[in-house]
Amino acid sequence: MSLRRHTALVLAAIALVSTAAATAPADAVQDQKPVHPQIAAKPYMGWSSWSLQSTNYPGVNPDGPGSFISEKNILTQANALATKLKPYGYEYINIDAGWQDGGDEYGRPVANLKRFPRGMKAVGDDIHKLGLKFGIYTVVGLGMDVYRDGNTPIYDAPGCFTRDIVYPDLRKTNGWDAAYKINYASPCAQKYADSIARLFASWGVDFIKMDGVGPGSWKGAPDDPNHNNTEDVEAWWRAVQNAGRPMMYTLSWSLSHRYADVWKQNSNGWRIDTDVECYCDTIVKWDSSVKQRWWDVAQWIDDAGPGHWNNLDAVNVGVGAMDGLTDAERQSYMTFWAINSAPLFAGDDLTKLDAYGLKLLTNREVIAINQSGNPARPLNQDQLQQVWYAQNADGSTTVALFNLADSPATVTGRFDQLGIGGKATVRDIWADTNTRNVSGQVSAALPAHGSKLYKITPGNVPVSIPADLTATDVSRTSVSLNWRPSAGATSYRVFANGKQVATSTKPGTVVGGLQPQTQYTFTVQGVKYGRTSDASAGITLYTSKSGGPVRYEAEAPTSTLTGDAGVSGCTLCSGGSKIGNIGYGATVTLNDITVPATGTYLVKIAYTDGDTSRQSMLTVNGTDSYWVNYRGLGDNDWGTPQTTYLPMKLTAGANSIKVSNPNGYIADIDWITV
């Protein structure tokens, strides 16, 4: 759930899900815990109810917002999934917000009997009879309705009451401020989490989604401790591990990346973004908010892996009329989820899957890419034509081309940038075609928001080319370089202008001893037992001039502001100020950025971003434009600066760099250095 939901729908969901989730204790304590397969060893696959609950599509919620959710409708979808999608690996039926109606005498959740007259265990039993798994929803914190003046006893915890697990001032928490924050200094607090986890286990629950968790969801900055739920997550993780039943435990929504280590250690996955649903007459729209995932997932890529995955939300590609997308957008949507090893859970009405939607959801090669658990990454994001890739254990490379622009464009993936040497067999996965002896690149003319998905398998190459050579910092006399590991390589040789200047045993190094204001072209070769790969794609840039790098403050008198863009205070920013409110018609242009020679320079940008991520265009001298992805903190912290880098072509003399985005707000800008 997110703050974007319609008010009536939010209130309905909160009313029905007001308590933190629960479980009944097992009959006997086992001396030894049973051994179960690893939970979330691969991204899970299934279906979730929220997409249908959230939509205004005709006939889906005939009795008001969220009214879709009921025992009858859930089991109808379960039967459809068992028939149509289970053979392809889809197995979870996840019941989202709306199933609950208050709590029992111990403050543990109870079902809304008007919607689920037989209770949740009976529904779970019916789901299990289909060979499927049963998921349930809860929110973080203590539901206000079960506080009951602090007199509600905690199950199986003599002497513990709800007054013992909250703060005296009854401070509120979660994404909607709809619960009391739990004080885990009290041992009674862990007992409460334990009681709910065991109740869920007694119902046969296989999957728990905990919503409203912070830091994240635009709350929980360092000066906002009431929305820091890391202690809740840790307590719930312990509760789930000791509940007597294997259950996947996932977090929502739009979690803050600065706490990624906590999420990895104490959950099986996390949402990286707001809801994918548009809360409109369809389920989703490309601009609201499918396309934002391309930007928001970037900082999370290395956090995904067995046991915990980046959750991009539901994949709604199965029913064209209901989805609100073109066929090209539906393919891109499914492709992006698959290559990022995101959980694949549909949100459509599975009884109405159209032929194209069924084809997208059941392509075994695409599913295999997803289930390999090898998330892709972008070669760069400085344009709306993007190449994403993943190097596979068998020596092949998964490559996806995306055109995120609103008009047709050609997108090209160069083999030397992708780490592919020699000739290769290119498999177009969606088209089900193979092309042999391809060299140099893959390229496709794509419609607006279109995509291609390839598996590229080179011939027998002893050492692969280092992929994605990138400069990450520059000074007058040094350049920092990173690249992706080369298959088979035990070391790397680094070259500048054709001369070897460094050796590294890791995929990265700092090349020193360079001359100021000098242009260098860098390449890297992988080495194994004296055998070397072909050279990587080169990157060319200038070192900083003598006395550099030079910093240009965004709030300097020489900058040009338009619209509502203005100076705002920022204690941790350079000079105590930054430029904010940039976007739509508001822009800032930094002027008189001076370099002695025309060429490519590594521009460093300092910014603040409390959102999940924001993007802007940087336009140089009114001509060349680049896109920048500002990776956000996601917790509404707009006072902590971060930095990003971008190679840009500048002209000898004075340059201007305009920061803008005509279609959205961007990060606040502190300074730029060259």
Automatic annotation (TrEMBL):
It comes from the Bacteria. Residues 1-22 form the signal peptide. InterPro entries: Aldolase_TIM, CBM6, FN3_dom, FN3_sf, Galactose-bd-like_sf, GH, Glyco_hydro_27, Glyco_hydro_b. It is an enzyme of class 3 (hydrolase). Residues 550-674 form the CBM6 domain. Its EC number is 3.2.1.22. Keywords: Carbohydrate metabolism, Disulfide bond, Glycosidase, Hydrolase, Polysaccharide degradation, Signal. The keyword Cytoplasm does not apply. Residues 465-546 form the Fibronectin type-III domain. Pfam families: CBM_35, fn3, Melibiase_2, Melibiase_C. It catalyses: Hydrolysis of terminal, non-reducing alpha-D-galactose residues in alpha-D-galactosides, including galactose oligosaccharides, galactomannans and galactolipids. Belongs to the glycosyl hydrolase 27 family. This is Alpha-galactosidase.
